[in-house]
Design goal:
The chain is of the alpha/beta class. Helices cover 29% and strands 28% of the residues.
Length: 279
């Protein structure tokens, strides 16, 4: 288990306590500047906290040797700068640092997992941003760590690859890995997370089941949104509808993650006839 107790960093993160256990996928959400990436960097030992402690399977994270830490904890940052002519395969093989020896079959399997099986020999510097992100996710997967910290792993990916990566996260949780992932797409949170931690101004203001947190009053405080869930008429899965609150004019613009929709279709569960409306 990964845990932190009253973690603080300068004025960005304040008294944050959380846990991530094997077998669960936890989404860390909040508006830009809420401290999500900073928390992941603190948990990954990229940053040193101003105060508080981080424990990894009952060991003080900051006293662990690098190789042992890498066996238990994998970290994918939002961006990684590479200015060396490494191939995609080279990058993935770096993930075997803590486990060794390198398994070519395992590398081939991971490249297929992240959709890069045809790009294994490509120079990492020639790839698109989304392809680089998938390459470094492959490196993290090669670590075979018990706890994974993923900072916006689907940022810059097209919709199909977003779903692929999130399905990998769910599969890893079923294999008894613990996942802490930052996401901006709230519908992805509703569909794939077991638990949600909501941040606002560097502190946790609510955590719990996705449907409860995403429709709670704290969403108005953090995002300035009013939210509700409805049933997708095509998939019969829960979806999220949200409206921006205009405090000055008291005007609400209803939106879903796919764009602006007719006000009436927000209530698909109670007015199913909207689901068949065209246009």
């Amino acid at each position: 288990m990964l845990s932190c107790d009253r973690l603080s960093f300068q004025q960005i993160v304040r008294d944050v306590s959380l846990t991530v256990a094997p077998g669960e996928c936890v989404a860390l959400i909040g508006p830009n500047g809420a401290g999500k990436s900073t928390i992941l960097k603190l948990l990954a030992r990229v940053l040193t906290p101003t105060s508080g402690t981080v424990s990894l399977f009952d060991h003080n994270l900051h006293r662990m040797r690098a190789r042992m830490r890498a066996r238990w904890l994998g970290y994918l940052p939002q961006q990684t700068v590479v200015d060396v002519a490494y191939t995609v395969r080279d990058i993935v093989e770096m993930g075997f640092y803590a486990r060794g020896p390198i398994s070519r079959d395992r590398v081939d399997f991971i490249l297929a997992q992240v959709g890069l099986q045809s790009l294994g020999d490509r120079d990492i510097r020639t790839l698109s941003g989304g392809e680089r992100q998938r390459t470094f996710l492959g490196k993290v997967l090669a670590q075979d760590a018990s706890i994974l910290l993923l900072d916006e792993p689907v940022s810059g990916l097209d919709v199909g690859f977003q779903l692929d990566i999130l399905r990998i996260c769910r599969a890893l949780a079923k294999e008894d890995r613990g996942i802490l992932v930052t996401l901006h797409d709230l519908e992805h949170v509703l569909s794939y997370a077991d638990r949600v931690i909501l941040l606002h101004e560097g502190t946790i203001i609510r955590q719990g089941r996705p449907a409860d947190v995403l429709t709670g009053s704290e969403m108005e405080r953090a995002f300035g949104l009013r939210t509700r869930t409805f049933v997708d008429p095509h998939t019969e899965q829960p979806r999220l509808s949200f409206a921006r609150i205009d405090e000055h004019r008291n005007v609400e613009t209803d939106r879903t993650d796919s764009g602006q929709v007719d006000d009436k279709c927000e209530l698909l569960r109670t007015q199913p006839e909207c689901a068949s409306a065209s246009g």
